[in-house]
Structures are given as structure tokens and as C-alpha cells.
Amino acid sequence: MTVNWSANSWRNHTALQMPEYQDQAELDRVTAKLSSYPLLVFAGEARSLKQKLGDVSRGEAFLLQGGDCAESFGEFSSDLIRDTFRVMLQMAVVLTYGAKKPVVKVGRMAGQFAKPRSSPTEKQGDIELPSYRGDIINELAFTPEARRPDANKMLEAYLHAAATLNLLRAFAMGGYANLKHVSSWNLDFARDERYSAMAEKVADAIDFMESCGVTPDTTARLRTTDYYTSHEALLLPYEEALTRVDSTSGETLAGSAHMLWIGDRTRQPDGAHVEYLRGVLNPIGIKCGPSMTTEDLKQLLSVLNPHNEAGRITLIARFGAGKVDEHLPRLIETVKAGGANVVWCCDPMHGNTIKADSGYKTRPFDAILQEIREFVDCCQAHNVYPGGVHLEMTGSNVTECTGGLQALGDGDLSSRYHTACDPRLNASQALEVAFLVAEELVGK
Ligand code: PEP
Ligand code: CO
């Protein structure tokens, strides 16, 4: 039991980025209903993820976290879920080969519906309306009705999350994750000569195992996979309603996903989001942007991980290309000085968002790669293990980030720009990142 904590003790702290629901009775009805619904994940799963992240913190595994910036109720289908799951498995094979370590796969999926915004309102011409805060809160259309926070959307989000998780579990356990399929998809991508050499080596390694009798037919580990879910724990009434006490251990579980993270805008050590997360047993991510001070980090580590449990905390650095050396060393030194167990992970997306001449928000592929390289170099220069990457990506062929093998330019962005929020890597760009990270890890 965490001292002086309850699932609603966050209500005594300042909660930034929270919608203002007009109808309190409706909000109460919705959260009461959610409180009676089944959990989406169970405590044993969150613990097993924490254990695996503990392996990452010791340099014995690598973390791949990825998915949409914001999942949307409109873009919701088996194909989309399958495609993102598939590209993450492909990336994991490449990274396993590069890192020579197991890859822990965590989707930004099945619950990534709430978004922090830089401004509470949006102005178009003379009209000012509340900002869009994700499908769990309001709608993207620029009308007063659409932008009104609607508590009922939490129930809809729960159902979308449950259906997504159901399919992910089926894919992970039902044969879709068979290594033989995963590797043949890679070969398809790897027609490009920059990657074909590595793809061939991966295929050779699989053939070798097969001749030794280690095949998906003989070995369950090659037919199934572990796949976990995560999202930003932003909308606290929703998280509170899905919080349960685990009957075996007496510990408390956030039942909405295996892993939750705190955004860069809501990580005040005395704020409501930190208060909520300190009491749940799940592994926790903390986004670390340029404004993260050593003092903040020290406090966050002591509040969120008082027993210094390995795998509990993943620090997700998101500084932007060219800024890693300015900010990451002070965080590394703080962690080292306190002897804290953490996973070091790189989010190369959120510090590299620019506005293209065409007006679209985009991210240049080269800046994304540069930040990953700076992160790996900085970690190695300071003798800590660069443990993972956190990507906004999708399995579909969208045109939201520029560059990569397809050499997408500003002029291409309008053709398939589907994101409800930030620009995502498409399948080819995401896989390319995996090849380049693997190369980086192999080379060191
Ligand atoms: C995000 O991950 O979508 C996000 C908003 O990140 P950050 O809190 O790092 O800005
Ligand atoms: Co984002």
C-alpha cells in the first residue's frame, strides 16, 4: 500500500490539461459505469512487463514502443491494427538481430486517446473554440458542439480499447506472429540494397535455427509473442475509474493498459498526474523534455519509485536533434548520483516537429535519425545503456513525415495525411528506423 494514496487522491493536486465537463451528473454516471466494467489488463501482465523492463534497465533487452500519436474512433479497423502490429514485429526482428537481445514490444495502442495541447483554445478567423483533446474527450471538427467535452466518449474509448486489445491478443497468440511470416515481410522491404545485406543475415540466422530443428512448429516462442499496450495517463477520471486492487497482492493496478506514461506537460512532481501514478503498480514512463531540471527528476524518481524497483521507470528523452548533448547528460548524472534503476529511451519525434511550407505539421526523417544517433552516442559516452526507442508510427502508407527511402517531400504531405494529431512514420519509414538503429547497435 502506498502511504496517503487512493485512486482519487489526485483530486487534491493541481491537474493540468484536464477538460472542463459541463454536466457533472453525466460525468459521475459515466465514471460509475466504467468503475463497474472489467479491467482491460490484469496485474500479472503489468508485472511481467515491469520485469522485462527491468531486463532493459540492466542492458539485457531493448524496448520498442510505438503507435499512433492519437488513436481515433474514425480510423478504427482490423486492417489498421494488424498493419501497425505487423510493422512493429518486423522492426522487433531487425532490432533483435542488431541488439542481440530480446525486444520488449509496447504499443501506443488500445487506449492512446487523450492529448495534451499547447493551448486550451484554437482560433480560426474570428472564432475561438476549445482545442481538440483527443477522441476520448471531444471531436476534431471545428464547431462548438464537436469541441464540447463529452464524458460519454470515455465509454466509447473503453470499448475501442477493449476491441483493439482483443485483436492484438489474438494476433500475438494465434499464429500471426510466426517468425517465418515476419521475416518474409522483411525480405519484401529489404529489396532496397542498403538493407538487403542485413535482411539476408537475419534470414540466414532463421534458416540456421531451422536446420537445427528450432522452428515455429517445434518452438512456441517462435509462433507467439508478448505484446503490451500503453498510453499517456492524461485523463485522470478515466484512469481512476479503471483502477482496481489486485486481490492476490493487495497492490493497486491501473487497469486501462500495461504501461502508462506521464507527458512532458503534466509531470510536475506535486501535480495530479504524478500523484495518481505513484500509487499504481504498473511500469511508468516519464517524458523528459528540455525543461526537465535535475531537481524535478530527483523528486520524480523518489515519489514514483521510492523502492528503486528495476523496470518501474522508463525515462523517455525527447529533446530534438541537436539538443541531446545539452540536456541528457545532466539527467544521466542525476540518475547515476542517486543510483536509480531506469530504462533510458529515446523519443525522437516530439522535439522534431516543424511546420512545412505547405502548412502541414511534419517531421523530417533525417532529424529523427539524428536524434536517435545523438541519444545512443550520449548514453554510451556516459556509460549508460541506450535501452529503447519510442516512436509515433503506423503500419499504413501515410505521408506525414518527410524523407526516408520514399523520399517524401513537402509536396507529398497532402496526399495521405491522416493523423488526428502529430505526424507519424509510415510503415516503410518505421522499418527503416529499425534497420538504422540495428546498424548503430551492431556497429558499437
Ligand atoms: C505524445 O507522446 O504524444 C506527447 C504529447 O508527448 P510529450 O508529452 O513528450 O510532448
Ligand atoms: Co504526439
Distance between the termini: 43 Å
> What is the CATH class name?
Alpha Beta
* Overall pLDDT level: 94
Order of helices and strands: HHEHEEEHHHHEHEEEHEHEHEEEHEH
Work out the helicity level. Answer: 25-40%
Proper CATH architecture: Alpha-Beta Barrel
CA radius of gyration is 21 Å
Oligomeric state of the chains in view? single chain
Query: What is the CATH T-level topology?
Result: TIM Barrel
Work out the strand percent.
Answer: 5-15%
Unreliable parts: none
Q: Cofactors and ligands present?
A: phosphoenolpyruvate, cobalt (II) ion
Across the major sheet, the strand order is 1-2-5-8-9-10-11-14
Total beta strands: 14
The total count of helices amounts to 13
**In CATH, what is the homologous superfamily?**
Aldolase class I
Largest sheet: 8 strands, parallel, barrel
- The coarse overall form would be globular
Total domain units = 1
How would you classify the helix and strand content by structural class?
alpha/beta
Q: Quick summary of this structure?
A:
This protein is an alpha/beta fold and 444 residues long.
Protein described:
There is one protein chain. With 444 residues, the chain is of the alpha/beta class. It has one domain: Aldolase class I (TIM Barrel, Alpha-Beta Barrel), CATH 3.20.20. The protein has helices at residues 24-36, 43-57, 78-99, 144-147, 153-173, 179-189, 193-211, 236-241, 272-278, 294-304, 324-338, 365-381, 427-442; strands at 62-67, 103-108, 121-124, 127-130, 227-232, 243-245, 252-254, 259-262, 284-288, 313-317, 343-346, 354-355, 361-362, 386-392. The strands form four sheets. Strands 1-2-5-8-9-10-11-14 form an eight-stranded parallel beta barrel, surrounded by five helices. A two-stranded antiparallel sheet has the order 3-4. It has a two-stranded antiparallel sheet with strand order 6-7. The protein is globular. The structure holds phosphoenolpyruvate (PEP) and cobalt (II) ion.
